[in-house]
Amino acid sequence: MEDSGVMEVARNESLIQSIVRAHAWVDCLRDGAYKSIEQLAEENRLHPKVVRQALRLAFLSPEVTSAILERGQPTGLSLAQIPKLLALPWAEHRRLLS
């Protein structure tokens, strides 16, 4: 906690980069730049499973995505924890911020 009583947040550049990449990949798939996740994976020299998992970050709630990109994420929140939470409804994503 900071002196003001507000929870400290840390910028995790790896998480931010992963979220931005996920949104870019979704746009590429939607626009037809890649015909499939497999083609996207091949072009990026990644396994399709890795790409599928990364794409899930594009579907975080807008509130959580904005908070992470603009203010950072709560201390202790990591890229590895987020996929486990993505099955939750967006309303429950807010718990990530508390």
Brief description of this entry?
By secondary structure, the chain is mainly alpha-helical. It has helices at residues 13-31, 37-43, 48-55, 62-71, 82-85, 90-93, and strands at 9-10, 73-74.
Structure notes:
The chain has 98 residues and is mainly alpha-helical. 53% of the residues lie in helices and 4% in strands. It contains six helices and two strands; from the N terminus they run βααααβαα. The chain has a two-stranded antiparallel sheet. α2 packs across α3. The chain is elongated. The two termini are 12 Å apart.
How are the secondary structure elements laid out?
Layout: E1 9-10, H1 13-31, H2 37-43, H3 48-55, H4 62-71, E2 73-74, H5 82-85, H6 90-93
Antiparallel strand pairs: 1-2
Helix pairs in contact: 2-3
Descriptive labels:
98 residues; two-stranded antiparallel sheet; disordered N terminus
* Structural shape: elongated
Number of beta-strand segments: 2
User: Fraction of residues in helices?
Assistant: 40-55%
Radius of gyration: 15 Å
Task: Give helix and strand order, one letter per element, not per position.
Answer: EHHHHEHH
Main sheet characteristics = 2 strands, antiparallel
Distance between the termini: 12 Å
What number is the mean pLDDT? 80
List the uncertain runs. 1-7
Strand content: under 5%
